[in-house]
Amino acid sequence: MLLPISCAIITLNEEDNIARTLQALDFIDDIVIVDSKSKDKTVAIAKELGAKVFSKDFETYADQKNFALKQTKNDWVLAIDADEVVSQGLKTEIFKLFSNGEPASVGYMIPRLTYYLGKWIRFSGFYPNYQLRLFKKSKGQFGGGLVHERVLLDGDPGYLKSPLYHFSYKNISDHLQFIDRYSTLFAEEEYRKGKRSSLFLAFLKGSFKGFYMYWIRLGFLDGKAGFVLAVLGFYYNFLKYLKLYEKGKSVSPLLVVVDPVHNIEGNITSHKNSDQVHIGKLSGTDLR
User: What is the pLDDT of residue 100?
Assistant: First the structure.
């Protein structure tokens, strides 16, 4: 049985993930993918598995996802990323929502469970990490800046219990590339808002993040993976505010020492599917 739900996904070079994601959507009758000129087999795999594929140059995450919403045929939309998979339990819950007609709420928060370094991460601030992913598009749309797009929902969401599986990073190198891209986007967005930073603030932000993830959010219970996440959490926050500091300064020898591997300026048009969807209000109006 197919439910009258559309699924909207944006992609860029996701050949390692897209088949697994689409195969779990066998209960949805309309799957839309908006691709940002992938160089791999993403588009071919998606078409083979029955998705409708549209090509669009990437501008911002919100623009890309709103364009995807416009291509869907149903009012109810499940908006997920290419590295996320609907669990069997979540599929069952969604069926129950629609078993008696229209669901009670206009949108639903879904917990997300991340797989990292060979294990499911249940602490470190990574779970339950509720995301607003199932909603009526007549009551919601994406908004936000360069980094953290969010769903602006006209109404209060309900909550589901079963998780959306998140296969976040292929390996440490992939994680570091994500950190480099997103720290650049963060610095650009904050600089446009008139925000500034300092080396001390960068160190303070990074230190607090690492401490928060490992001790306050019990990352040590995630074992070795939790330790790695805390260290990279420190690095990510440190780099975000270091790059913001750099925006108002000329490149100094210190920056060369701190970040010899990554391209500090980055490319704000390159992207990977976002990790965050928050709630706002149409009327009036970060795990990592």
Answer: 86
DSSP 24-86: TTTTEEEEEEEE---SSSHHHHHHHTT-EEEE-----HHHHHHHHHHH-SSSEEEE--TTEEE
Position 253 pLDDT exceeds 50: no
Q: What is the largest CA-CA distance in the chain?
A: 64
Q: How confident is the model at residue 144 (pLDDT cuts 50, 70, 90)?
A: confident
In terms of Cα–Cα distance, which of 133, 243, 223, 227 is closest to 181?
243
Task: Give the helix ranges, DSSP H, for the chain.
Answer: 18-23, 42-48, 61-71, 88-97, 172-192, 199-211, 223-247, 253-258
pLDDT at 41 exceeding the cut of 80: yes
252 near 263, Cβ under 8 Å?
Answer: no
CB atoms within 10 A of CB 142: 23
Q: How confident is the model at residue 280 (pLDDT cuts 50, 70, 90)?
A: very low
Has residue 215 got a pLDDT over 90? yes
Instruction: Let me know the angle formed at the C-alpha of 262 by 260 and 249, rounded to the nearest 5 degrees.
Output: 75
- Paired residues of 55 in beta bridges: 35
Give the pLDDT band of residue 163 (cuts 50, 70, 90).
very high
Element of type H or E holding 274: none
The Cα–Cα gap between 131 and 186 comes to 20
276 — pLDDT class (breaks 50, 70, 90): very low
Which residue bears the tokens 């992913």?
133
125 close to 49: Cβ distance less than 8 angstroms: no
φ/ψ of 225, rounded to 5, equals -60, -35
